[in-house]
Design a protein that fits this description.
Belongs to the elongation factor P family. By secondary structure, the chain is mostly beta strands. The chain has no helices and 17 strands. The strands form three sheets. Strands 1-6-2-3-4-5 form a six-stranded antiparallel β-sheet, with no helix packed on it. The termini are far apart.
């Protein structure tokens, strides 16, 4: 058991049988009345974010979560298959529990959040950015670097993003997996 004084970002709580991560929290001490804690909680299964206010000092059920590295192997009808990099144990996960699944390619290392007591994987997080090759886009024209105009591009994983006009087929680009935005072109 923990109290609201123990809250920190990334902490996992068990509320009515559902697991929630604390996205952000704020201790508030108004001039009149008791202190309270405002939190934003992210549901582990659905990904929905909700606001919840707690009275200061309330006891909550903390869930112990471990972060473990898993390597993506392949996708089949069971889901996305991963292998633990140290024990070589394989596990299949549904696409809904993986953040940024459209940018996942074979061999990528992801961090899985594992419930320590039951050894079940709750979610899987991609690295914040990945390098992928552009497989299709309209050809760029020399000198198209002065404006911030973007064009659609298809990546090697099948995902579509918007890239600057000077990017061509075969270029490698860094993509932010949190929002799917173009970061930079990688020069070799």
């Amino acid at each position: 058991m923990a109290t609201t004084a123990d809250f920190k970002n990334g902490m996992c709580l068990d509320i009515d049988g559902n697991y929630f991560f604390i996205v952000e929290f704020l201790h508030v001490k108004p001039g009149k009345g008791p202190a309270f804690v405002r939190t934003k909680l992210k549901n582990v299964k659905t990904g929905r974010v909700l606001d919840k206010t707690w009275n200061s000092g309330v006891k909550v059920n903390e869930v112990r979560i471990e972060r473990r590295p898993y390597q993506y192997l392949y996708k089949d009808d069971m889901g996305y298959n991963f292998m633990h990099t140290e024990t070589f144990e394989q596990v299949a996960l549904p696409g809904e529990s993986i953040d940024g699944v459209q940018f996942l390619k074979e061999g990528d290392i992801c961090e899985a959040m594992v419930h320590a007591a039951s050894e079940t994987i709750l979610t899987c997080e991609m690295p914040t950015s990945v390098v992928l090759e552009i497989t299709y886009t309209e050809p760029g024209i020399k000198g198209d670097t002065a404006t911030n105009t973007l064009k659609p591009a298809t990546l090697e994983t099948g995902a579509e993003i918007r890239v600057p006009l000077f990017c061509n087929i075969g270029d490698k680009v860094r993509v932010d997996t949190r929002d799917g935005s173009y970061v930079e072109r990688i020069k070799e």
